[in-house]
## 1
Amino acid sequence: MNNPSQPRPAYISHALLLDLLALQLPTLIQMASEDKIISWLCRLTVITAFFFIGFIIGEQLLHYLSSCADVSLIFGVTGWFARPTTVNHGHASKSFLHDFLDEMQAENIKHHLRKLTRLPHLAGSQQNLDLAKQIRAEWMEFGLDSVELVPYDVLLSYPNKTNPNYISIVDHLGNEIFNTSLAEPVPEGYEDVTDIVPPYSAFSAKGQPEDELVYVNYGRTEDFFKLERELGINCSGKIIIARYGKIFRGNKVKNAMLVGAKGIVLFSDPADYCADGVEPYPNGWNLPGGGAQRGNVLNLNGAGDPLTPGYPAKEYTYRSSLEDAVGLPKIPVHPIGYHDAVHLLQHMGGPLPPDNWKGALNISYRIGPGFMDGLNQNKVRMNIHTNNQVTRIYNVIGWIRGAVEPDRYVILGGHRDAWVFGGIDPVSGAAVVHESVRAAGKLMKKGWRPRRTLIFASWDAEEFGLLGSTEWAEDHARVLQERAVAYINADSAIEGMYTLRVDCTPSLHTLVYDITKKVSSPEEGEEGMTLYQSWHKRDNSTERDAPWISKLGSGSDFEAYFIRLGIASGRARYTKNRKTERYSSYPVYHSVYETYEIVERFYDPSFRRLEAVARVRGGLIFSLADSPVLPLDCVEYAMSLTKYANSIYQLALKHPAAMEQYSVSFDSLFSAVENFTVAARDFHQRLDQLDTSNALAVRMVNDQLMYLERAFTDPLGLPGRPFYR
Amino acid sequence: MNNPSQPRPAYISHALLLDLLALQLPTLIQMASEDKIISWLCRLTVITAFFFIGFIIGEQLLHYLSSCADVSLIFGVTGWFARPTTVNHGHASKSFLHDFLDEMQAENIKHHLRKLTRLPHLAGSQQNLDLAKQIRAEWMEFGLDSVELVPYDVLLSYPNKTNPNYISIVDHLGNEIFNTSLAEPVPEGYEDVTDIVPPYSAFSAKGQPEDELVYVNYGRTEDFFKLERELGINCSGKIIIARYGKIFRGNKVKNAMLVGAKGIVLFSDPADYCADGVEPYPNGWNLPGGGAQRGNVLNLNGAGDPLTPGYPAKEYTYRSSLEDAVGLPKIPVHPIGYHDAVHLLQHMGGPLPPDNWKGALNISYRIGPGFMDGLNQNKVRMNIHTNNQVTRIYNVIGWIRGAVEPDRYVILGGHRDAWVFGGIDPVSGAAVVHESVRAAGKLMKKGWRPRRTLIFASWDAEEFGLLGSTEWAEDHARVLQERAVAYINADSAIEGMYTLRVDCTPSLHTLVYDITKKVSSPEEGEEGMTLYQSWHKRDNSTERDAPWISKLGSGSDFEAYFIRLGIASGRARYTKNRKTERYSSYPVYHSVYETYEIVERFYDPSFRRLEAVARVRGGLIFSLADSPVLPLDCVEYAMSLTKYANSIYQLALKHPAAMEQYSVSFDSLFSAVENFTVAARDFHQRLDQLDTSNALAVRMVNDQLMYLERAFTDPLGLPGRPFYR
């Protein structure tokens, strides 16, 4: 019996746990006050057994099944898979997998990348619709069973074409004595291209606030904390300037609103966006001083279209007013390059910045409000005229129906819309999807058809908040929850030149390792080496002797599929050396300098890295769609849960007083993880003895495997974030 | 393109639509102001096609399936169902169904009812735990594969044993000059029984408010509306008295709080709780003047345990404080019989009541606050000392594992806890479940085992807000959503002596008709007639030539399964003549007079009515568990949707101005219903041609059928009611 008036160990969702872990614990602990951390921990301490009960009950049933004499007699049948086309045996048909991987070729990817990056293709633009039609036509030609354009009407945001956005320094007479650039210098060869959208912060509020400027480093919680509590600088009513990096730009804006700022300017500091010893584009792959990072500044938390949270933005869908829209910032926001940033930064007063705030611009001027030299009474004015408007977007959805289980779906999806040319983001990924579709079509012409249904998606409006992928997920939520086996994301396929990077759900670890052992290393001098070996050599896990795989975070189109719907998901790309290369994403990220040429000249001249990524992504969907028994690994899941539980426990141990005050106990958490671990082990043992000629028995274990990931979602979501389930 | 600033046709969930319809439209339209109705309608107008997309996409796939040459070759197998036990053929094994129905016998049900009603068995009491153990032991003996007690720790509410609840009339000196009874007169034969809980309103707030009394008829919205706006009587700060009936008592209390009342007294008016020409118990089955209706007065909206909404009330679950608990009333509430009510009603002043408020007590005194004759300065005082406390409850859960598809569940569940003896509510139902379990066990000894898993549940604490069933649903939500085929509810099996009453999801209509054609009429003089014929004769549908079947409302244990999880559900019981017998539920409802004898002497002396109900409920679960193709009917679903859509449209037409003002259009709704109708028809046509020897093909269509009901749930729930999905 419990007394409801006592504090008691809290119940939490596993999604919460994953979410918390995805936030990089050390940062989190610095950011939040101890109370806040403990209030989280207090909600966190118990992952109750019933998160695992799906699995455990499943186990009981499986046990019934295998102990039930009747059942072994159900099939006197051995011919199940010996059907005329002789495609599926115990494993995904190996020769076809080999053919499929081989079919994807660097030269083709190069060709696709070139073709898909000639013009800008911003979401909602005619060019992007044209591109959608082109992709539809080519996918049909490649041999998919069907390809459709699926429109939604979502809230997008564009600069006002007749009234450009910029930031000014205004003197005491009100004259604009300095204005930031209206556009980036256009790279060579693209001078005649029209419709290049200038750098802007999508969904910025309109406005012309004018005030003193305050520098807030990265605009993280801990930065504001330091500024306001340690340095005594009040940001309320000021315009603030933050450098890009460390956290999502939308969170910088949210933090700025929380401290009461009037507006926020974002700039790219060379410390975060330039690699040492590399020239700015076009002579190297660093960001030029005139380049700036576009991007949306929403706080959607997975809601999709801000006007239709939870529901697809169809023509007839009810839309909330702009006032009630999800995640729109209430203040003007604007991005600038570092050449312009220097001018603004010179016009501040106040104390000197902490050393670790100085960046490459050596912001030693001063960081707070005030008049720099007593004579300078200049202020900063933002001039922002960006408009929100409901706009039609188009996903391209292609299908290959499954031969045996058409009601099981494996999805390969990535976005098509780009801020400008999208040489890296997203077309390095879209070119890879294109090549996967071509290869699958080629195999079909040889008589292959996957056991399960394959869905290929070219999402629209990812850059505006993952809108295309989220609306489609909302449109088909029930069917996807019942039928989707896995979602593999295909955003940018390359962001560095070092090695492979994979983020995925733990149940995919084993398959990822298996596939990478079947792919060759793309690196020069590594002929005869597998991708696995090359990757392993460069990025070994700290926990075991295998390549490093990360948890899935958020920020790309898998979000609605993984975080909301609980579909096993993963992503793979070529990346930088995460131990030595400290710049955020890649230098030219979301600038006009993301061209075909930057990939062809610097990132992947042979296109073998993109080929390797294509084979990993392609190998994953092939195996997931074609293996009779789903290649998902519950034991890996159990190991990861143990690791997460220990991390949280270690974190909690740093707050012994609060642990005691709130009677926080980890017993139930560890007990639940242990139960899950035992069940997972038993499950896989029995899986080894499964009679794969028994179609219904195979379907039942596959259902258990498919629904494992769903068991970790909570329909109520996180507190205040109903779509993070 | 849409302009977000315009009002536009609204998106609504189908659950909302069903919910609205379940509210009895004519009442609703009276109750709410026009604006409120229109704001609902405005949210209502569009059932978008994507509610049906699960089905429609499924259809496309089925089409692929049947058009895909490969698939017809998958099985060269005809021996699938010809396995040694030869149980399942194209339909649920008919001879076993016949045996199963025959096995359930009136005499046994009589015996169970007698045995299970000897002692009170209130939720949370030792007697109810003892009864749970007894049921577990008998179910094991009957032959179930496993039976377990599943405990939860939930918030219950009991009167204070040393400080009884009552209502007084207090004179101007503060003397209690009249007190209501502390208990009901105990029926003959039960004089020595201890632990009969006196009439009380569970979860009432404590308190001793004292003030003038105001009569509010049934305490519905429209009653308060009439009282306050037409008669000018202000209820704020008063104690109000309402008669039971028409709406759930918890809603009367909610309405009382909304008008600012200090407390509310509930009484049973003979007009609502006595049949004409019938004697009070024990000489007849009417409610005696000393009898009163117990019951909880929560507003849970499906949340289950008030302290753990959304999560199972395990030992380690986080519990909210009582202040944050769901649905607890903030004012004292108490129920009385009509003998006591007369005394209180004499002490009011104010205007005369409207004629239709007078009831059988002929409340012609006066209805408002005031001093009746100018000399009388008496007031009313409530003395309420009821305690809330977290208490352990026990569900009994029994399993028969499925022979072929152990991972598909069919559930027969009803509650065990009773306010006192539970002669009708719930034991008339529990005795029927008991007999079903016995019959199933008997068949298993003959070699039968159902194709799917059967789950039998004896829920606890239904009377306290459907707690046992809801907590178990919360505990197993994911597995149930993935695996549950249907839930059949087994609350009271009899509430009248006229004919059958069935409330169920439209997809079960056809099966209900089929089963009732296999059961004999229990009525004397109808030998040789089927239950279907007897029922049809007495209660023909207004819409077609078939017996009347209602929509499922709420108020019993199916709620979490149907409304929250979207599992196809139904209930069946013997009932009164709904056209002529106007009393609410049945006269002795929730009183001490619900004994074994009232059933044996009046409701069902031959026990053949309960036998018939047992065979209907049993036949439903048997067919659902054992038919190779699930006996669910999408075409019936489509017909019902058409009917609902028309009802809403007719309702809307009564408000043309508001329809215009909010640009309400029904086009999308009707178009979606039409699409669904076509898809349903096509599906059933193809179902007729299904090769039932193809195990995987059968499983795939069954999955479509099983998930159909889920497609009508929305994880976001109704506005403000997250568990009504």
Note: The two ends of chain A are 30 Å apart (CA to CA).
## 2
Amino acid sequence: MILILKPDATEDQVQHVVARAEEMGFQTHLSRGTFRTIVGLIGNEEKLQAIPLTAIPGVAQVVPVMSPYKLASLDAHPQPSVVRVGRVPVGGGNLAMIAGPCAIESLEQMRTIAAAVKKAGANILRGGAYKPRTSPYSFQGLGEDGLKILREVGDEFDLPVVTEVTDPRCVERVDQYADLLQVGARNMQNFVLLSEVGQAEHPVLLKRGMSATVDDVLMSAEYVLSQGNSNVILCERGVKSFDKATRNLFDVAAVAAVQRLSHLPIIVDPSHATGRPDLIPACAFAGIAVGADGVHIEVHHCPEEAKSDGPQALLPEQYSELVDRIRELASLMGRRIPTADGEVA
Amino acid sequence: MILILKPDATEDQVQHVVARAEEMGFQTHLSRGTFRTIVGLIGNEEKLQAIPLTAIPGVAQVVPVMSPYKLASLDAHPQPSVVRVGRVPVGGGNLAMIAGPCAIESLEQMRTIAAAVKKAGANILRGGAYKPRTSPYSFQGLGEDGLKILREVGDEFDLPVVTEVTDPRCVERVDQYADLLQVGARNMQNFVLLSEVGQAEHPVLLKRGMSATVDDVLMSAEYVLSQGNSNVILCERGVKSFDKATRNLFDVAAVAAVQRLSHLPIIVDPSHATGRPDLIPACAFAGIAVGADGVHIEVHHCPEEAKSDGPQALLPEQYSELVDRIRELASLMGRRIPTADGEVA
Amino acid sequence: MILILKPDATEDQVQHVVARAEEMGFQTHLSRGTFRTIVGLIGNEEKLQAIPLTAIPGVAQVVPVMSPYKLASLDAHPQPSVVRVGRVPVGGGNLAMIAGPCAIESLEQMRTIAAAVKKAGANILRGGAYKPRTSPYSFQGLGEDGLKILREVGDEFDLPVVTEVTDPRCVERVDQYADLLQVGARNMQNFVLLSEVGQAEHPVLLKRGMSATVDDVLMSAEYVLSQGNSNVILCERGVKSFDKATRNLFDVAAVAAVQRLSHLPIIVDPSHATGRPDLIPACAFAGIAVGADGVHIEVHHCPEEAKSDGPQALLPEQYSELVDRIRELASLMGRRIPTADGEVA
Amino acid sequence: MILILKPDATEDQVQHVVARAEEMGFQTHLSRGTFRTIVGLIGNEEKLQAIPLTAIPGVAQVVPVMSPYKLASLDAHPQPSVVRVGRVPVGGGNLAMIAGPCAIESLEQMRTIAAAVKKAGANILRGGAYKPRTSPYSFQGLGEDGLKILREVGDEFDLPVVTEVTDPRCVERVDQYADLLQVGARNMQNFVLLSEVGQAEHPVLLKRGMSATVDDVLMSAEYVLSQGNSNVILCERGVKSFDKATRNLFDVAAVAAVQRLSHLPIIVDPSHATGRPDLIPACAFAGIAVGADGVHIEVHHCPEEAKSDGPQALLPEQYSELVDRIRELASLMGRRIPTADGEVA
């Protein structure tokens, strides 16, 4: 930690800063420049993160030297982690191909879509049972009935399943039905929920919040990891922007940035990132090309009748064509799509 | 609702759109322009919000004509609402002066600060018992012990109290201790929590999310209102920005924009909006001048020892001077600061 | 300047960094922490700004200690500057009340509006002769004919005049007609234009760019100042945002932030910041309350026939009422509106 | 154009709107809904763009039906345009590989870099002679001497050259030396400059502004096209963001969005988009995968001595490796890299 003092910091203030630092067990290192005095603090920086250093009189700026997360960082785990979802390995060159409708609407609907995406090459089935909707008057999901349908269809088609959990009181229940627990963008800093999924048995799919920085995402992952659940997959799904050309702004560089800081797998969600089916394939390719560990795509056999997010869903035949092209691209980039059985060609 | 069709929409698609709309009980109104066909749908727009209209082939754009919230809108309640927090009226010209530390640290600390802010003219005492911290390694609050301290100190100094609730499982407990339940920025779209506080006995202080639009805030308020709790106070606390000169970007115009759409009181929080004590007074004045129904400010008697957000707290004497000036400004603008007893001079 | 080295910087790299710094005439100060080595550079920081320090192998981060501008900073001039526009003092408690239409359309139009805003209490008349329009097919302004009208009407009503200059080739011409040269938001980093107005005789009104940080604005002011023109007035006019509730996001805190860094006067432009006449008065009050040195407002006697930006103009009678209230508010805040003759009541 | 009237619009206002529209030569189409009246205007929408429709009393919202640009749109030219830079075709499956230093520093430097990038496979050489720097104290470029060096080196290595023009007074001069004229991000809405390059002989490389929407970019291109220069190449180079993990936010989806609206080629610039050499290759791949028509990359043989933007430059050997991989990827995506002679393998 480096403290840059104010240009007009008095000698008393300098001494007070040094005294406070040493009181906390740090070695200090004073450097008096032409215009400013700088205090280097040597010791365990984590302890300092709890101290309001900029509130100490005379301190202008605090420059952290270490990252604020540790379990999520490459320092803790220099090799890319491989997270298993059912039998499917994700990360380390293995791509998660997550597909399915936004919301679980009926057994029939899920069977139709599961059959199609399995055939296309998806290895994880998605479907929402608890839907976080901006309007209280919109369809809120089928709840536990939806979970049962998802599990049944996952078993029938031999696909591991992922579904969102929005309520800390439901984590245990969702953990019984699902192979992967999704925490949505709006809940990325719902720390109560993060702590709860940190105690779940199954891995967690953590979506980036709409205005979360790369560091914020990794701090949220740290919440889950610090509770003992070491299986976290991150997901870039677009951030808020001034441009309404796309629903969100797909931050493809964040995938590469995360991979230089963390060992956790990170996938992309071009469905939410763009909100436009006509751009989804191109953005899925971009995600694979940049190095993402998988692609999350919403697929519906009849978007105009979907109960949620229909306008951004791909049709099964569009998805199938997309997977074929992703397979080629992945192969060129030295990666592969495991089957739902976890077989890696 | 207006549907703008694609330039190349076929006659079949036009007929399909009309048929779908009439099937849902709407009258349609077709307008064929030089380059585009437009379909006006006449009827209850709410029903349409659930339908993925842009997923219908041939539809390019959907233009809603009504706002998606109703209980929160001026249509439902054309006069400004007055929400009572303890005996303090908020709204309709009455200003909430909320002050206190970020986190409740001890009985002693709360007594010191409560005495000071009461004397300065604050009419509501704040203090956090459950702290949503970005790092799992930071101080997380005293929990129920904190709530007890807050209640005790509020009673001693005859100040109604506000504290944040972060967990739907704690809403009932917090509702027993507090006079006003805060939903924080990071939980503004935690719809599970919103539904729960919608069933609480006490009013709700709903802070704007970091990348929430004015419409998003009002939709979140609608969640609370739709559960039966009609007492919601909104709070502008800055949004995410590219400029790090201030912690967030204080969106003072949003206060005025909300007041032209909704009857709910809206206050400002210059502490979180700026993160800089040197800018808090100026921004508090701006908030009052723009028409806000109150000011939320963090006050600590020893910021450098505060366990949370110390660097952005005002000292009690700074707060006292600020309230004096706010009182004058409010008076010029035709508004007033009620006492904690609810007396309006 | 502080260089934070990478965790894995080799001893050779450390020595290379030190050697490079000393070669440039700096004293170095090495601080080896538990995890990182830090190099403090003591000497004239300006010289370092030209050197790509982060390109030196082993360097992770460069932390500047001084601000990159000097003439614009409070260090260079600790008291607020007062800039004279015609005979009107701006800054140091004196408010610029700039009003007029977006575009100069005719002599008749300018006379009508000038008479009205003068009577209302405006002390500077605005009008655009060269309009930077996003569409090449929109009205581009009357050019030099417009300048002549503006000058004539300014003289007739004894109001100093401000108009935008967009082309470095026109600076000399505009300087002959106008009392204040405006550089618009879209040209805030048009450094060629900045250099040119830096050589003009009259003062410059520099509007903040749509995604310019406070530091960016001050660097652009530095361009003008460094050419010898020491009379610069800044203007906050809203930045780009994800929320379309207002045309731009009015960054009222930036006014206070600038005043803690620079001696230059800074005014607000609620017309462009909000784009909504119904919010302009409230945001003008907020600007005055936060400490701005004036208000720029677009006024048109017939907005629906205006050739540019009609939808955001106030009517003359609305403007008149607004000035009355601003006068009261300014007086409470210890500031005042000089007359166009420069008289300060 | 569709006008949505206010809920409380009077019958007089409705009639005034209709009268105004018909006066301008439009057919109107009135649709009275349950809550709102809507007026469709049928006719040439371009004429309406000049009219401040929202300033007409009773009008709440104006919904345009056509895009505001025409020469840039796919309607005007349904097939992708191919722009020739020297002999190199860009667009329609042909990739521009633009490489070189940020600033031209000397003949020696340019010869070294040109030799390396030519060998690596670049087909256009870049170098800045006029540098738009945020600080007036930074290196501003060699000016015309730089242009001469660039031309000489381009001729020696048989590479067409691109350089930035920042001043309308220099367009003619730059047009004499360069094969492609760059308009930088900060000048994207410098309409005076756009008009000037619209009259140049050579094609224009138009970089997206830091907070420009996709529509803004296309409107700026329209400025150039409307002056008669039909050869415009667009360039996505990142937009402003709240996250400092990368210098800007690389908006890869914008490439795909532009291609669905316009026939103009669009390339990506991962150097400026990320500002981080370690992320440049991954983002270049993403750009190619999403469908970009080329890649602009800064290359310097000694970044730590570069006079501008050294920290974001690739080394020649890194660039060479990158081009090899881009070639493979392009081939998979059905595209190709022409040689500098314009040969397409």
Note: The two ends of chain B are 48 Å apart (CA to CA).
